[in-house]
Amino acid sequence: MMEKNKVQLKPFNELRNRQGDLLSQSVEELQSTGDNDVKRLVHEMPVHQIESDIQNEELQRAQVAIEESRLQYADLYDLAPVGFLTLSPKELILEANLTSATLLGEDRRYLIKRAFSSFITAEFQDTFCLHCKRVIETLTKQTCELQLQKKDGTPFYVLVESIPVQNSGTEVQQIYSSIIDITERKKVEKALHKAHEDLERQCEERTLELKSAAEELKERQEELLRHKSELEKVNKELMETNKAVSILARNIDKNKQEMESAIAKTINSLLIPTIKDLRKAKTVDGLHSAVDILATQVQALINDLSGGMNILAPLTPTEMRVAVMVKNGLTSQNLANKLNISLHTAKTHRRNLRKKLNVQNSRINLTSYLRAIMW
Asked: How many domains does the chain contain in total?
C-alpha cells in the first residue's frame, strides 16, 4: 500500500519542483522592479506559497481517495456475485469480470474479442440474436434466458439482462450485459413441473375413482329404493294378510262353536239312543242291525260336518278314485295296470295326492293316512 501511495504522489512532487523553478525566476524579475513593489511582493509570496502548499495537499488527498474508490469499484466489479460483460454490437466480448469468466469456465484473458455466442448452445442461438437486436432497436433494457456451455462442456442456464450504451448520437456503441446463474431455479422449475403433472395425473385418476364410486353409490341407492318399495308393498300385503287372518280366526272360532254344538246335538239325539239300543240287543242279528244303524249315523254326522272340514275336497274325481285304490293297498304298478296308464303317471298321481292332502313328510305312509281319513 505504501509503494502504491508513493507512485500516486510522484506527480505532485514534480509539480512542486516545477513551482520552485518558477519562484526562482520570479525572484530574478523582482530585482529589476522598484523597492516598494518588491517589498509588497516579498510580503505576499509566503502567503501564496502557503496557499499553494495547502492546495497541493488537498489535491494529493483527493487523488488518493479517487484511486482508492477506483480500486474499490474495480474489486466490486470483478468480485460481484453476478457476471458482467461488455459486448460490441456484433456480440463480441470487450470486457468481462472475474465472475463471468468463472461462469464460462474460461480465463478472462481469452474472453476478450471472443464471440459470446460461442458459449451458447445451438437451441438458444436465435434467442440471444433476437435479444441483442431488440436492445439496439428499442434502446431499452431487455431480458432473456439462455443455456450456456462451459469450456468443459457442462451446460447451465443463465438469466441475461442487457442495456444499450450510446455515443454522442443515437448509435449503440456497446451493450452492457449481466448474467445470473439460474440452473438451480431451472431444476426446481423442472421438478415443480413434473410434480404438477404427477398431481394432475393423480387428480384425474382420483376423479375417475370418485366418478365410479358415485355411479356405484347411485346404483346402490336406486337398489335400496327398489327394496324399500318392495318392502312397503310386502308390508302392506302382510298387513292385509294379518287382517284377513284375524277375520278367518274369528270365523274359525265361530264355526268351531257351531260345529261343537251340532256334534253335541247329533250325538245326543242320534248316537246316544242307538248306543242304548245296541246295549239292549240280545241277538246277533239285533246287534248287527244296531251296528249298521250306528255306522250310518256316524257317516251322516261326517257328511254333515264335511262342509267346513272335508280334507278330500281339493281332489279331482280321478284323484279321488286313485285315493280309494291307494287306501285299499294298491301299489303304483297296480294303479298303472288297473287305470291303463304309465307307471310315471301313476307316481305323479301319488305325488299330487301328497301335495293336496299336505302329506309332505315322506316318512308318513300314504295308504295308512288315507285309511285314517276315509270311511
From this structure: 3
Reported as a single tens digit per residue, the pLDDT across 324-371 is 788 888 888 988 888 888 999 989 988 988 888 888 777 778 888 777
| Residues 101 and 70 reside in one and the same domain | no
- Is 348 found in the same domain as 299? yes
Assign 3-class secondary structure to the chain: CHHHHHHHHHHHHHHHHHHHHHHHHHHHHHCCCCHHHHHHHHHHHHHHHHHHHHHHHHHHHHHHHHHHHHHHHHHHHHCCCCEEEEECCCCEEEEECHHHHHHHCCCHHHCCCCEHHHHECHHHHHHHHHHHHHHHHHCCCEEEEEEEECCCCCEEEEEEEEEEEECCCCCEEEEEEEEEECHHHHHHHHHHHHHHHHHHHHHHHHHHHHHHHHHHHHHHHHHHHHHHHHHHHHHHHHHHHHHHHHHHHHHHHHHHHHHHHHHHHHHHHHHHHHHHHHHHCCCHHHHHHHHHHHHHHHHHHHHHHHHHHCCCCCCCHHHHHHHHHHHCCCCHHHHHHHHCCCHHHHHHHHHHHHHHCCCCCCCCCHHHHHHHHCC
Is pLDDT of 265 > 60? yes
Domain co-membership, 279 together with 367: yes
Within 8 A by CB and 6+ apart from 31, the residues are 38
Would the pLDDT of 126 be above 90? Answer: yes
Calculate the dihedral angle through the C-alpha atoms of 225, 230, 234, 239, rounding to the nearest 10 degrees.
40
Task: Indicate which CATH number applies to the domain containing 145.
Answer: 3.30.450.20
> Are residues 68 and 104 located together in one domain of the fold?
no
Q: Which of the four pLDDT bands, split at 50, 70 and 90, describes residue 176?
A: very high
pLDDT-above-70 percentage for the chain: 73
pLDDT digit string (tens) for 222-248?
999 999 989 998 888 888 778 777 777
Q: How far apart are CA 330 and CA 321, in angstroms?
A: 12
